[in-house]
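Figure 2 data, in text form.
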Amino acid sequence: MNTNGGFQPVFCTIVPPHLLDRLARAENSTVADRARRTLRRDAAERTQRRLTTVVGARAVAAPAAAEAGKPHRTIYDLQHGTDLPGTKVRGEGDEPGKDATVNRAYAGLGATFEMLLTAYGRDSIDGSGLPLDASVHYDRDYGNAFWNGEQMVFGDGDGEIFLDFTVAIDVIGHELVHGVTQYTANLEYFGQSGALNESVSDVFGSLIKQYSKDQTAEQADWLIGEGLLGPDVTGTALRSMKAPGTAYDDDVLGKDPQPATMDDYVHTGQDNGGVHINSGIPNHAFYLFATALGGKAWERAGQVWYDTLTGGELTQTAEFEEFAGLTLAAARARYGNGEELDAVSKAWEQVGVPAQ
């Protein structure tokens, strides 16, 4: 049983460190300098996250006027500073302003809240109406977005390699779902449990995008971060769940390193043991499961993943095989010995993860 042992919020970015490391070595000094600046900011925020975990995070409570089952969003503008959260520029129910970045962040928080509530009966990321805060215009040329255990933060990108990080609704969903994981299975951010942490965020980030577009599994692009890459970058997104390893192949960014099956599992000491790399394997398993069932992926396939994440059986150090076995148990518990169980079993078999 997973007792969590107390929440351990982690600092999670959408752009993986290995990709920024590559950019930091670019021949173009401007590109390299921007990547190094982003890495330094990430390191500073990661250190702050550790300190906050030690001394305790600030208490966050919904205001008395907030209704159960209703979002409570606040968007802040950092005006290219880094002292969170910044100046409040839009609250719940406020009309859209002139800043498209603010409006996209507000809409993305709302879409995530709506999908979690409508599809799974979850009231915000903690299940108890947690207010959703986001800060935009973080630093200058900052090439990332992150969940810091308490709130979302978005960079504007540099306009060359990365564009504004609010343009991809799945990125917003991805980062917020790190909060869902934080409040449920609390998966350790290292090795296979860390890759599962990343994969769960990719899965639900993609489902939030599909839900917002009312797409079927067949209609979805299954890309994570589509629209984030600059116009001169050879690539379509940060990751592909449909075909891991094909999201980009660029002279500056390099080639997408994600494996689709255990045959190509990457053993590395970087990126907390390759959490953003090996997440391609469970990502691909979910894609295979969802497309085998067809229809709206957030319904049956997403429900199985949600039940697995929140069911209390998933240990904090879970590896792929444990997670896979629990998805079979979740499918059987909710749907019996039908096509859902068969589809999820075959999906894990196709990516080389034993599941029973």
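Caption note: The chain is about 40% helix and 10% strand.
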